[in-house]
Design a protein that fits this description.
9 strands, 3-stranded antiparallel sheet, two-stranded antiparallel ribbon
Length: 140
């Protein structure tokens, strides 16, 4: 069983479908992603594939395209990855040493033993301050 995500023209995942392996084999009996795409396009004819809808394989073990796709996630063409929505406008895409992508804030939190949380409005109001955007979390 393999899984394919339907991506809309805005690069948002709108559907994730399992497909039995028998629908993914070429004439030589070898798996190909393109056979899965072909099968899904025939089955789901209601989507206008010429306008940007497309199917891409996703794996539960995160071994391709960064992570297992879920409805509402986005697909980033340049990085060939699925990822959650960008949490804040100032955050940017980074790649970890193991090759996975994640959203990262533009500044690091202060380097101490306290817990901080991100405040986008604070960051946007004063981007020149070191550790801009981070607010110390206080327990009550």
């Amino acid at each position: 069983m393999r899984y394919f995500a339907l991506i809309n023209p805005d690069n948002t995942v709108v559907q994730v479908n399992p497909i039995e392996d028998k629908h993914l084999l070429n004439s030589d009996g070898q798996y190909t992603e393109s056979k899965g795409i072909e099968y899904l396009q025939k089955f789901y004819k209601q989507y206008d594939y010429s306008s940007g809808f497309r199917w891409l394989e996703t794996k539960k073990d995160d071994s391709i395209r960064n992570t297992f796709a879920g409805i509402g996630m986005i697909y980033i063409n340049e990085s060939d990855c699925f990822i959650s929505l960008k949490p804040y406008s100032s955050w940017y895409l980074r790649q970890s040493d193991d090759g996975h992508y994640y959203w990262s804030p533009p500044t690091d939190p202060p380097d101490d033993d306290n817990f901080y949380y991100w405040d986008e409005d604070l960051f946007q109001s004063d981007t020149e301050v070191a550790n801009a955007g981070w607010i110390l979390s206080t327990e009550e």
